[in-house]
Amino acid sequence: MKKFKMPSAFTILFLIIIVIAVLTWIVPAGTYDYVDPNATPLEPVPGTYQPADQNPQGFWEVLRAPVEGFFNAVDIIVFILVIGGFLGVVTDTGAIDAGIGSIVKKLSGRETIMIPILMVIFALGGTIFGMSEETIAFYVLVIPIFIAAGFDSLTGMAVIFLGAGIGCLGSTVNPFATGIASGFAGISIGEGIVLRIIILIITLLLAIWFVMGYAKKVKADPSRSAVADMRESNEKHFLSGDRAEIQVLNGKQKSVLAVFAVSFLIMVLGVIPWAGKFGITVFEDFNAWLRAVPGLGTVLGNITPLGDWWFEDITILFLLASLVCGLIWRWPELRFVELFVGGAKDLLGVALIIGITRGISVVMNDGGMTATILHWGEESLKSMGSIAFVDLSYVFFLLLSFLVPSSSGLAALSMPIMAPIADFAGVGRDLVITAYSCASGIVNLITPTSGVLMGALAIGRISYGVFIKWVWKFLVVLFFVVLILLSVAAVVPGL
User: How far apart are CA 85 and CA 21, in angstroms?
Assistant: First the structure.
């Protein structure tokens, strides 16, 4: 008998489209009145649900749904591809690797203090641009350093994996999680950023405390290591062979890192609704002044003020940043295009998942199911407070994350339904997005379907069972800490 193998996210999502199409023959169709029938996405008016004629979806509609899904999500898909191109260009310079390598070199001999510093750096990578697969190269570099300093392979592995993982959990502006979810919820990425920053800081401090406590215990008594039985073998494996070479950060790489940092800083400033939510009009005023400058305003064109940016503006930013990196590094034109297209190609799978997942919403909307499910949600929420709704959403996303481990796929799958239901519960859509990113982040710290986790464990020569036995209590604490913070945010305005 062949061993069961979990199908790919593409197969799972297409099967969901088929199931939803079958349900359109069974679930009653309905419709709502909307605040603005021409807006995207539509915001239903509570209490206006009405039954509608049944419109069951057939074979042709199932095949058409992903295609229409691509057209409906084209702004997000182009954004993802351009971000991929930008990361492809930056990665080829080795700037990020060399930057972290330089920090490791400077902290050599002070490995204990290296733990919080490296965890903060990897967490910033996770929260800003979803740093995950990119961390694989660092395990070979960092683990031997920690073993040589008297720690173990689990310490080195945890510094990188939990650091980046916590960053993804508290995805402040991560374009592959918060960005996609915000796009499908119809709100700015900046909405809810205060709460996500709070969650990031608290959970990261807990992770640093957890790893440092374990590291000190191992250094004081190596027999207390979770991989004590591998001590001699690991020392021989990691310390007697060729050590990973630490790159030196050169001038060009420093310039590329500066462009990288400034680009994401501008993105953060661009998506926070300064004028609309906080009454801060400095960016609108600056834009108005710039346009009034004779000649310069016309040459620069109609730039969107920071705070009013949408995916189109962020895409332009990273396209421009890619060109600036190209000028700094001075690749031949063909090489630059090759790197940019290669980076975009690396994220083509993400773009395809978004299109297919969007097809689920197409089938539901065309079959009249969406309004009916929203109506059921509205009815059930009449007796449920905002705290209960947020907490249940968090648990729901945890369960759904095991089925759809792709954070971008999960966002595209769930937000078209969960965001309008949040309106009925009197909860901000940004809070649902935060619940989603936290749940997805926790699951990705333990799921065996994560290539990053299993790859990191393989490099560190750590079994999956040993890792789970070591980390599960911390994850339980993490779950309840996030649950409490989400509950508080449900009743405290401004979070």
Answer: 35
